[in-house]
Amino acid sequence: MNREFHCVQNCSDCCIYRQYFPSVEYGKIGVLLLPEEKEEIESLAETYKIKITVLPRLGIGLNEKLNGPLQVIAYQLMGKINGDYCPFLDTDSEDRSPHGGLNCLIYDSRPLSCRAYPTIKENKTYVELDCNCKFSRQNSIWTSKNLLYNELGALKMISKNFDQFADQRIWRYATHIGEKPFLNLLLPRGWYLQDE
Questions:
Q1: Which stretches does DSSP call E strand in the chain?
Q2: Cβ(107)–Cβ(113) under 8 Å?
Q3: Per-residue confidence at 78, pLDDT binned at 50, 70, 90?
Q4: What are the pLDDT digits (tens) for 87-123?
Q5: pLDDT tens readout for residues 42-77
Q6: Kindly report the CA angle at 56 between 157 and 196, in degrees rounded to 5?
Q7: DSSP sequence for 75-105
Q8: What is the pLDDT of residue 83?
Q9: Average pLDDT value for residue range 13-26
Q10: Which helix (H) or strand (E) holds 66?
Q11: Measured at the alpha carbon of residue 147, what is the angle toward residues 142 and 153, in degrees to the nearest 5?
Q12: DSSP state, residue 63
C-alpha cells in the first residue's frame, strides 16, 4: 500500500547527513544548486550572516588550460561539519518545524533539490524515493506519482535543466570532504572526467 509522503516525526536527516557520491573517493556531496540558484543562496547567506561554502559539482566541455570543464552546470552547497549539517538548518533555536524536526531558515526559498526530496526518479506510475530517507525506509522506496505532486514538479525542473547536456561528457567535482577514516581515500579537490 502506498502512503503519502510526509516527514517522519522529529527527523531532519535530509538536512543533516550528506552522502559520498558517486563513490567515497569523490568525497561528500552538497545540496545540488542549479547555476541560477547559486547567487540567491549566496545572497540569503549574506542576509542571515551565515558562512557558506559553495563548490562546483558538474561541468561540461573541456578547458585545456585548466584541465577542467568549459561550463559549470551545477554547484553544491556544502554542509558545515565534515560535509554534514546544512548551514541554513537552525540548530540553535528551540523552535521546531511542524513535524518536530529542526527548522530551515530559508524554507520558502530553498533550492529545487530540497523541494524535490525524497524523489529520485519516476516511471509511468511510480516514483523512486531516496532509500536514505526515514519515510522510505519505514514504508517503501516506491510510491504512487499522485502522492508526490510538488516534489515531482521540482524534480522535473531539475531534469529539464540537465536534459540539454545528455550527449556531452560530464566532469564531476571531487570535494575532498568527509570523515577522518575516509580522508586517505579521497581524491584531491578538483575536477575529474566522469567514466575515466
A1: 31-33, 54-60, 71-77, 89-90, 103-104, 119-122, 126-129, 142-144, 170-174, 190-193
A2: no
A3: very high
A4: 999 988 888 888 889 999 999 999 999 999 999 888 8
A5: 999 999 999 999 999 999 998 888 889 999 999 999
A6: 95
A7: EEEPPSBTTBS-TTEE-S-S-B-TTSSBEET
A8: 92
A9: 95
A10: none
A11: 95
A12: B
- Per the model's pLDDT, the better-predicted residue between 17 and 95 turns out to be 17
Residue 156 CB partners (closer than 8 Å, separation 6+): none
Residue 31 grid coordinates:
545540496
The residue to which cell 561540461 is assigned: 60
What value, to the nearest 5°, has the Cα angle with vertex 39 and ends 33 and 43? 115
49: amino acid identity, one letter = K
Give the whole-number percent of the chain exceeding pLDDT 90.
64
Are 69 and 171 spatial neighbours (Cβ–Cβ below 8 Å)? yes
Residue ranges of domains in the chain: 13-193
- How far, rounded to the nearest angstrom, does the alpha carbon of residue 59 sit from its chain's CA centroid? 16
Compute CA distances 27 → 30, 46, 101, 169, whole Å.
10, 26, 26, 21
Cβ atoms of 74 and 57 within 8 Å: the answer is yes
Q: Give the pLDDT band of residue 25 (cuts 50, 70, 90).
A: very high
β-strands 89-90, 71-77: how paired? Answer: unpaired
